[in-house]
Amino acid sequence: MTTQLESSGAQHDARVDDGTHPETRGIDLVSDAERHGRARDLVLVWAAPGVSILNLTIGVTLVLLGLEPWQAVGLVLLASLLWILPGIVAASGPAAGTSGSVITRAMYGIAGNRLFVTVVGWLIGAVFLSLSWLASSFMGADVLRRVGLDDPVWTPIGVTLVVSAVTVVVAIFGHGLILRIYPVLAAVLLAIFLAVGVSIMPAVDWAYANPEPLEGVALLSAASIGFTILASTPLSFINSPDIARYLPRSTSPVRIALATAVGGAAPTVVFTVVGVLLGTALTPDALAGGIDAAIFDLLPSWLAPVLVLGVVVNTIALNAMTTYTSSMALQAIGLRLQRIPAAIIVGVVGTALTIALVLTSNLLAAVNLMLQFLVVVSAPAMAIFAADVLLRRARYDGAQLFDDRPGGRFWYHRGWSVPGMTALGVGGIASAVCLATDVWVGPVALALGVVDLSVPVGMLVAGALYALLLRSPIAKDGRP
């Protein structure tokens, strides 16, 4: 235990979380003397990543699926309720005083957690890194194309490299810088995206109606697929404890949950609804050149580059948070790396994946497909984490989470937690057989008429099975 605690970070001083120096702390425990901040500080921290071009893209997708605008808006509001789950999970951060990738040892065991973080944690991080960088790459390249830099390969790759470099720098400075600059970024992004929203309003077809309104199973299919895409964002933030871990131990878990949920949900709802309205203004011909070009065509010439700036800023905000937390995930799986080199490795991997997508994808197709597949792992993982927090009443002993010796509280069965690993596997299978995408339709989804129930089924199966097994003798040690 001592070896791991010492290897996860360097010596710390008062500057470690002031935002003006690189943060050297990794997964090691935050002492009570170093705790600071209030729960409400989390609202604007989570708002900055939420003011995103991906939300506009998802909103357009809901209309393209055949939903009426009012149906799409109702679906957005319904899916926004899932933001309470990252909020519940975030409450474990101050309780344990460490990263979420360490806290999940309570769910999966010391050895099982290494597998979980390697496969699930890294998959979620890689998807959102690549999708966000992909959005900024396509839109930045489109602006540069309009001024003569029109190389279809090297221009978007160049944008990706610049944005990813800035993102990694923010992640290196870490939690303190995130707390300082994200409220400012949220305000800047809000102004830019509100200007975009106002600019597209004249083009909105307020009387829009699907020429062939969906009914019955067809309507249920479209709505279920749309819900899965919407749900993938809040369900992906199992890293929320990492942002809350510096809060004082006495901070109310309810306030942490509400601040995280409101900060994530509010901008997501607003700008996904704007995307729905945008969808009524875009014809198939307009979308032929990509959604980025279609949006630019609706904006005043001065606002297009400003929007790209907003997309880049949002990308940095979202991906710096992801890179920051993913760097600690590398430490949690046992790699003897300081957090800063780990952040650089995460950035390199995410950049490589983004470049691969730039060469093979368009933005709309990449977003929809990857977000749908993401729920196969994120839905059961989030359900298990939230269930564990609730069952333990957000009580975690950080020192015990670092005890990786046989016989430790979270050693379980040879380092593996049967309840956690079983619930994750069964929940993932349940989610996969209920998933409906362009390249995979599970047998249950197919039997229902291509209705996608992957999110509710995956979450219900994983959460309920975990709670049941955790109360059974098979759980052995470490139960609440």
How would you describe the overall organization of this protein?
With 480 residues, this protein is mainly alpha-helical. The chain has a single domain (2-374), classed as Orthogonal Bundle (Hydantoin permease). The protein is built from 23 helices and no strands. The longest helix has 37 residues, at 110-146. The radius of gyration is 22 Å and the shape is globular.
| N to C succession of SSEs | HHHHHHHHHHHHHHHHHHHHHHH
Shape-level CATH architecture: Orthogonal Bundle
Portion in helices: 55-70%
Count of DSSP strands: 0
Distinctive features:
single chain; 480 residues; mainly alpha; Hydantoin permease; 23 helices; disordered N terminus
Brief digest:
The protein is mostly helical and 480 residues long.
List the helices and strands and how they pair.
Blueprint: H1 2-7, H2 41-50, H3 53-64, H4 69-80, H5 84-90, H6 92-96, H7 100-103, H8 105-108, H9 110-146, H10 154-173, H11 175-200, H12 216-235, H13 240-244, H14 253-281, H15 284-287, H16 291-297, H17 303-332, H18 339-360, H19 363-392, H20 398-401, H21 418-433, H22 443-447, H23 454-470
Helix pairs in contact: 2-11, 2-14, 3-14, 4-12, 4-14, 5-14, 5-19, 9-10, 9-17, 9-18, 9-19, 10-17, 10-18, 11-14, 11-17, 12-19, 17-18, 19-21, 19-23, 21-23
